[in-house]
Amino acid sequence: EAGVAQSPRYKIIEKRQSVAFWCNPISGHATLYWYQQILGQGPKLLIQFQNNGVVDDSQLPKDRFSAERLKGVDSTLKIQPAKLEDSAVYLCASSLEGLAKAFFGQGTRLTVV
Amino acid sequence: KQEVTQIPAALSVPEGENLVLNCSFTDSAIYNLQWFRQDPGKGLTSLLLIQSSQREQTSGRLNASLDKSSGRSTLYIAASQPGDSATYLCAVYNQGGKLIFGQGTELSVKP
Fold it and tell me: Is the model's pLDDT at A1 over the cut of 70?
């Protein structure tokens, strides 16, 4: 079974630039999550989708972060403009439905300089 | 607001030792709880999922328990090996399926 795919694996950008991350969940998984993990901390939820609808985006900094999940499958997370404190690993996860086992991708490591 | 705490933050043990990692949560109204492993520079690998109606789950040398009333879960690792070295994270599910993570326990198993 194919896992959660994320790209790119690494990205280095200058502050105030924009960046986008892509996630392809496991086939058939209705729930998709984006998490931010700062070095030495546990992951923090940014946004949760159920199919193509948003379930929870309470911790998404909406002035600079945006996410979409077109057709309830792939998802993109965008940051514009980036700040130094956005340096982190961005993890995508999916599950069959909200309370089922969650599977994570390898993550995208973002460095903002 | 649900808060998840993992103690200790770091643990170093000799190979072969049995060990317990702890996870506590402030709101007992959780649905499920999942333990993950994270290797350096990698994503999260699911280890065990305990549903709210269960008290424990076992997989190989791993056993996870859940006591909702006391707000605690433990992950027991038997006969530890150097390959078990990683960061272990627990996450609780709220009603909407949101996973709330602890900060993790970094485990080092010395040969």
Answer: no
What residues of chain A lie within 8 A of the CB of B43, using their CB? 4, 6, 91, 104-107
| E strand segments, chain A | 5-7, 10-13, 19-24, 31-37, 44-50, 53-56, 65-68, 75-79, 88-95, 103-104, 108-112
Most distant CA atoms of chain A, gap in Å: 39
Q: Scanning the structure block, which residue is given the tokens 């909406």?
A: A62
Q: Looking at residues A16-29, what average pLDDT do you find?
A: 97
Amino acid at B82: P
B53 and B45 Cβ atoms separated by less than 8 Å: no
CA distance A76 to A47: 11
CB B80 within 8 A of CB B95: no
pLDDT tens-digit readout, B4-39: 999 999 999 999 999 999 999 999 888 899 999 999
Q: Give me the residues of B, 32-71, that contact A with CB < 8 A.
A: 32, 34, 36, 41-46, 49
By CB atoms closer than 10 A (0-12, 13-18, 19+), residue A4 is: buried
Quote the CA–CA distance of B57 and B48 in Å, as a whole number. 7
